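Friendly challenge for the regulars: who can give me the structure tokens for this chain first? No prize, just bragging rights.
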Amino acid sequence: MRIDIITVLPELLESPLNYSIVKRAREKGLVEINIINLRDFTADKYKTVDDYAFGGGAGMVMMIEPVYKAIEKLKSERHYDEIIYTSPDGERFTQKMANILSLKNNIIILAGHYKGVDQRIREHLITREVSIGDYVLSGGEIPAAAITDSIVRLIPGAISDEQSALSDSFQDDLLAPPVYTRPADFNGWKVPDILLSGHAAEIDKWRHEQSLERTRKLRPDLSDDE
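First reply, four minutes later:
Bragging rights claimed.
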């Protein structure tokens, strides 16, 4: 799998994508992640990639020409399954979407910045707009990193225990059950007896019941009972 991230601030993405599971997946050759500096695609001597909005108003707008050049350069080298734009008004990113994207071969993520991008970019170049939540950040680099991390950990081989990813929260529209480790008794706070019983079927049943209960209590919007 290949993920190309177009950004005006590549430094913001270097660290999050060079540690832990993502780093190991890159080292294993399971995923290739390229951070592309949008400023490399402008002829302006000051490397400008933004300008004032037509019609006035506060905030700068990412210009269409450098974005177009960057995307066309990448598309000339390979086919892309998705060209994603990170935006607060995009489709809400979910575990289901992460699962779908993890099966793709090549993805471009355009990290939004400033007041946003020229609308023509969204109309003619982007295939999917994605939001990680109903709030505004200084730029799309953090959402791009979050989306990338969520996708990469689902690639077979990225996590040594693949069953771990399959039991994550939201995989079945349920929150994960509570987990415990040693010691079994700390300050009188005890691990539920069922988890120490050794009865795998009963433990699985308990965990499923806990997932249902936690989902109904904490995220009733996910429950089929609504």
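Residues 200-218 form the longest helix (19 residues). The beta strands are 2-7, 32-37, 50-52, 60-62, 82-92, 106-111, 128-131, 185-186, 189-190. Your move, everyone else.
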